[in-house]
């Protein structure tokens, strides 16, 4: 695991992943299945924004990638966050599990923490 030194330094790129915590705590999804959803969303966000300069810089620092996984209490909170991110022009991927058509999580493209933290402030680390 890479050290997290310099996490607050300007220019450090972070990829945020927001996962529905009710999937584990209320709907009894296996933790592995929920982790898989987060992996799908993170991979999809990178793929969709592969040509973006921040994404390229993030990938160039392969051994120093920094991700933050936050929890959304339910589907409504996750969908609301996706709408807020879209309105703010923040690139992300809302992962919808198929064929069930269930929004499970979302991932932002790699970005500077300072640019998106106000939109994510109400979400706490996933537990």
From TrEMBL:
Its EC number is 3.1.1.29. This is peptidyl-tRNA hydrolase. Pfam families: PTH2. One of its GO terms (molecular function) is peptidyl-tRNA hydrolase activity. It is an enzyme of class 3 (hydrolase). Keywords: Hydrolase. It catalyses: an N-acyl-L-alpha-aminoacyl-tRNA + H2O = an N-acyl-L-amino acid + a tRNA + H(+). It comes from Gasterosteus aculeatus aculeatus.
């Amino acid at each position: 695991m890479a050290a997290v030194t310099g996490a607050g330094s300007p220019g450090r790129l972070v990829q945020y992943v927001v996962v529905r915590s009710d999937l584990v705590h209320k709907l009894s999804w296996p933790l592995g299945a929920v982790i898989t959803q987060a992996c799908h969303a993170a991979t999809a966000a990178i793929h969709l924004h592969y040509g973006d300069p921040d994404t390229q810089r993030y990938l160039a620092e392969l051994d120093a990638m920094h991700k933050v996984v936050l929890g959304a209490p339910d589907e409504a909170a996750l969908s609301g966050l996706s709408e807020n991110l879209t309105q703010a022009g923040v690139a992300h991927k809302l992962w919808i599990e198929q064929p069930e058509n269930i929004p499970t999580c979302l991932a932002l493209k790699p970005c500077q923490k300072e640019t998106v933290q106000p939109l994510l402030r109400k979400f706490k680390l996933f537990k």
